[in-house]
Amino acid sequence: MKHSFHSFITNSPVSVKPMGEISGFPVRPGLFEMNGAMALPVGVNFTIHTHSGTSCELLLFHRNSSKPFATLPFPDEYKIGDVYSMIVFGLDIEDFEYAYRIEGPHLPKEGLIFSRDSVLLDPYARAVAGQRIWGQPRKGAYHARVVRDTFDWGDMPQSSRELSDLVIYELHVRGFTEHPSSGVRHRGTFAGLMEKIPYLKDLGINAVELMPVFEFDETMNSREVNGKLLLDYWGYNTVSFFSPNSSYASTPEYNHEGTELKELIKELHANGIEVIFDVVFNHTAEGNEKGPSFCFKGFDNNIYYMLTPDGHYYNFSGCGNTLNCNHPVVRQMILECLRYWTITYRVDGFRFDLASILGRNEDGSPMNNPPLLDSLAHDPVLSNVKLIAEAWDAGGLYQVGSFPANGRWAEWNGRYRDSLRGYLKGWNENAQTAAWSIVGSGDLYGGLRPDPKGIYAGYNSCVNFITCHDGFTLYDLYSYNDKHNEANGWNNTDGANDNRSWNCGAEGETDDPEVLKLRYRMIRNACAVLMCSRGTPMFLAGDEFGNTQYGNNNSYCQDNEISWLDWSLLEKNRKLYEFFRFMIHFRLKHTVIGKKLPDAVCGMDPLHVHDLDGDKLSLPPDTRTFSVSFAGYDSKKGQDDIVYISVNTYWEDVKITLPTIKNNFSWHLCVNTYGDGDGNYFYEEGKEVRIEREFIMRPRSVAVFIVKSSSGQGAV
Description:
By secondary structure, the protein is of the alpha/beta class. Helices cover 19% and strands 22% of the residues.
C-alpha cells in the first residue's frame, strides 16, 4: 500500500480534488516520499525536508525574474515529521521556476544559520535555471525547474562487462571539442562529444569517464589574470547533485533538461562504450563561512556539513567545506542521487572524487565501516554499477589499498602512477613497486605475497593510470621537469610539485630531433606498460596524439587553449595515435592481461616477474630492466594466451633471454617502442617477428612478445 496514493494521483487525475487554497492556488497535501518537484496530470508535487527549520515557503517565479509572482506557505497539516509536501493544482511546468524559503533559529556556534533572506535551491532539483549559457554570470538566486522525462531507452540492456574488461578514457565534455580544430558542429557540448563517437570507437576505448557533468557554476570565483578570464572550468564544485550541466547542451532544453545527455549515453551504449560519471560528494559550491548560502546551508547546515564544535567548517576537501556523508539524511540523498542517475540516465559507473571523505565520521575521524560505503556497495539498484574511489582526500587521509571496499569498490591506484612514472624515467629504486603495479598490485588488493616460485597474484580492484586530468598530460610528462602554472595567477604555487616528470633534455617546446625522438619513445613506453598491466587501464583524452597543456599541471581554471584538445595534433602525431590504437586493441584481444585464465599448455605459469634471464624468477631490488609474463588458456579461442612485456629503463642496450617454453611453441615480437629503424613500432596480427629467445633491448625501451605454436596458432 506504500505507493497507493501516488498511483491514485498519477493515474486518476479527474478524481483528485484540491483540499484548500493558498495564495489563490488550489492545493492539497502531497506525496511525502517523492523528494523534489514532480509534474503530475493535475499539477505539480513539491516535497522538501528540514529538521531544524520552523516553517517553509514555496516561491514561484516567472522565467528570468528575481521576484516571485507567488509565495505559498506550507500549512502545518502539510507536514509529516520533517517533511513538507504539497500538490499545487493547475501549474504548467513551462510557466514557472521555483525555490524555497526556510525560517528557523540563527545560532552560528550551534551550526544553525537559517535566514528568511535566503532564497534556496531545492537539493533534489532536476534542473537549475539561469545556467544555460557557458561563462555568463547568473543573475540573482538559484531557481529550479520541473523536468518532464519522456525519453525512451527502448530495451537496451545494462552492460554486463567487468571492470577489468574496460579501457577507460577520461575527458572533459567542453574541452574535448571546444577547440576549433575539433571539426564538430556543436563544439564543447554533449552533442559535440556524440559527433566524436566514431573516433572513440576506432581508437578502441570501451568506456568514457566524464569529468563533472552535474550542474556547477563556472563563473563562481571567476577572475582575470593577464587579460584572460579564468573560470571554474573543471566543475569540481557542485551546485546541484540531481541536475545535468545545462551549458553542456547544444540547444535550450527548458523542462526537458538532460535529453541531450541521455541521447549521448544511448549512442555511446549502442557503440559498445560505457559511461562513468566523475561525481563530487565531498563538498559543495557553498564554501565556508565566507561562501554563499543558496541550498544546503539554508535547509540544515549542521546536518549537511561537518562542523567543528564552535560551528566552523571542517575542510577535508580543500574547497572550504566537507559534506557530512555518513549522516543518515545525507547518506539517503547520495543513495537516491546515484539511483536516479543509474535509472534515469543509465550511467554505468561512478568515480568518486576525494572518496576518503565518504568514510569520515561527523567529527571528521575515519570510520572502520562507513555506513555510506556499505549502503552503496549493497544497494540492489547499484549492484551492477562500477564504484571507483579516489582513495584519498585533502585532509591527509590516504587509503590506496586500504579503502573500505566491501568487495565492490575499486580504486584509482595512485601508487601505480607514482611508481611507474619514477621507474620509467630511470629511478631504478622503484623497480619492486613498479613490478608489483604491473602485475595488478596484489600486495595492495588482496594481500597476497609471491610464493616461493615467484608467482604474483593480482586482484582486480585497481584502476591503473599514469596521467589524468589532475597533473601533466603524457606529452608534458616528458617535456617538462617542472610545472608551469603561472597562467593560473598563483605565482606557480598551485598544483603538485611531485610530478616525477622528465623533459628529456630540454624544458618545453624544442626543435631538437634527438630530444623529440626520446620524448615520443617515452610516451610509447608509458602506453605499452599501461596497456599490458593487470587492472583496468585509464588514460587522459588527447594523450594518444600528444596533446599538451604547455606545462600546466593544474588547469582547473583554464577555459582556453591550455585545456582544450588541439585536434590538429592528431595528424601531426598520427604514428603516435596508431601506436595507442594498436596497444588498446592488443590489450582487448589478450584477455590474459586483465584476468587469470586456466593454466596454459605451453608450460608457462599464470603470472611471473623475470630478471634478464626469463628462466630466473627473481627481481633484484634496483634493477634497470625486468619483465612480466601473463599466461593462460583462452577457452573461447581454444589456444594459449601468453603476453611477455620487457621494460628497459637503462640508457644503453641490454640483452634479455626469454623463458623456455614447451610443446613446439616459439616467441614472437609484437611491440618494440624503440622501433626497427624504418619507423615501425608494432606488428599487426600475423606479421609478428619470430625471436630465438635472446633479444637486445634498446635504450629506454619496452618490448612485448607473444607465444605461437609451430602451426602459427597460440596467443592471438
